[in-house]
Predict the structure.
Amino acid sequence: MSPVLDRFPLELLRVRDLRVDFAGRRGTFSAVKGVSFDVHAGRTLCLLGESGSGKSVTLKSVMRLLPNNLECISGSIRFEGAEVLDMGASALRDLRGAKISMVFQEPMSAFDPVCTVGHTVLQVIRRHTGSSHSEAQRRALELFDMVRIPSAKRRLEAYPHELSGGLRQRVMIALALSCKPSLLLADEPTTALDTTVQIQILLLLRELQQELRMGMIFVTHDLGAAAEIADDVAVMLKGEIVEANDAVSLLTAPSHEYTTELIRSSRLDEPRYAAEAAAPVQTAQLK
Ligand SMILES: Nc1ncnc2c1ncn2[C@@H]1O[C@H](COP(=O)(O)OP(=O)(O)OP(=O)(O)O)[C@@H](O)[C@H]1O
Ligand SMILES: [Mg+2]
């Protein structure tokens, strides 16, 4: 990319005054109360905030994957210039299958327990690309290589429960990349994993995002993870964004007292991310 475009990266997603209300037994509950943010190609925006602050609802809104008790969604979500809130079923299918992908916290839910990992992966690739079985197999091995899954052929024959949490998450990332998305949504993708594996997955995501120049929204409640992966950070509290800035400015000179408290109570001074980042990840160590 040219230096000029690097300075003014392509705006992929523009969210303005997003509001999401759910119907509940005790009336309407406003989960997201007017959030606005942008995501640029080749950059990672971190949505950081405590449990219940509205991070997942915001993320699911981008793909219009909200539960049935949704009462009202308003504002604007423009993806590559098109208004997502105005899209019909077929435009949404195209958007989800080809332009935006999502990686969840619990990869097990993405797999059918009675099918091999290869069966699921090949099915997804064939659906996206319309390719033959052998072409899909070649692409699967290419994707496994990209997400650093060792002994890829053997892993394709495994059942989901036979893989470790870290490997399952790598397969889910491979699945998410199979349609070559321009925007990757990652909802706490490392939370369920052991610390060392968390860091490996985090570094892998960062590397892939940069290599493929995707935009990424990374949701987390972990300030250390945000510091490691984010270009920009938006801090959410009770359905609102209380502070947003580029990661370095936000983490070194926070302006909102909630962000200041988050930084004070975090373990950012522990060198776990820095040390792991400095050491190359050995394929043999992968769990
Ligand atoms: N379908 C729903 N109906 C009613 N309320 C909901 C629904 N889904 C989410 N909420 C509420 O909306 C708020 C935001 O939820 P959300 O899942 O976005 O939080 P979060 O920031 O992702 O939290 P966590 O870190 O625990 O994943 C919470 O109070 C949650 O209970
Ligand atoms: Mg969540």
Q: What stands out?
A: Strands lie at 11-24, 27-40, 44-49, 70-79, 82-83, 100-103, 183-187, 215-220, 232-237, 240-246. The domain at 3-285 is CATH 3.40.50.300 (Rossmann fold). The chain has one domain: 3-285.
